[in-house]
Prior knowledge:
- This protein is an alpha+beta fold.
- 37% of the residues lie in helices and 15% in strands.
- The chain has 3 domains: 23-78, no CATH class; 92-197, Phosphothreonine lyase fold (2-Layer Sandwich), CATH 3.30.2430; 200-249.
- Helix 2 (26-41) packs antiparallel against helix 3 (46-61).
Amino acid sequence: MTLNDRVVRNGPPVTDTPQQLSPPSRAAVLEWLRDAVASAARNAPPRNVARMADALIVGANAVHDGNGPSASAQPVIPWWRYHMPKPEAPPMDTDPEYKLQGGWKVHIAISPENYDSKVGRIAGWIQNNFKGSWKHLHGGEKGEKDFTVYLGSWKTMQAFVERFEGSDLIELVIPCPSSDDRLVGTSKKLGTRFDTKGTQGVKGHFPLYGLDGIPIAQEYEDFWGPWNKPEVRTQALELSRKLLAKRYGSYFTGE
């Protein structure tokens, strides 16, 4: 059975008089294509989605007004498919322990100039180099936590930072301005923070954002308020750090 046979058999009855159909607008087709690829992405490997996106975008650019393809038509590439280079190494993943106990995560911040282009390139790189959990905004703030990548151990976090800094995308990134993050890597642009999980709420036994990537333990939270003297806050931070090291060991310290 040919493709045409299948279309005829499963489609509307064939008549002797050809139907005169008005082609859909370019905007309508592009909107449909974006939805189609986004839906497929939930169940298809990133590389397959990339191929589908390429084919669909080519098809979208061929939409015409009934008099042939438009000479002025320009390629339209959605931000999520703007740039997807082939990775030099197998994709990394979130450590399995993260789901149960939390761990280190990385924030990537970008400036507002040419924002969509930067987002597209970075999102494409992450999708092709990391198969774990990550997000763009959805709670993060532009220019501070544009991307959040959930990693796990200190070792896994450092490996991700090194891989990202090895790409030319590091030039698109600004130093993460979040006060509770620690700047890491040779560029000192990526921010990292250790988040815990537990039965006492989403943040577990360490419910407060602290400083330098260290959350504040529940037993020291009364000493972290801004009304406390700086030396008291510093002590609360250091005690929380020691408690994290005792509880999570090398998963937290990397040693």
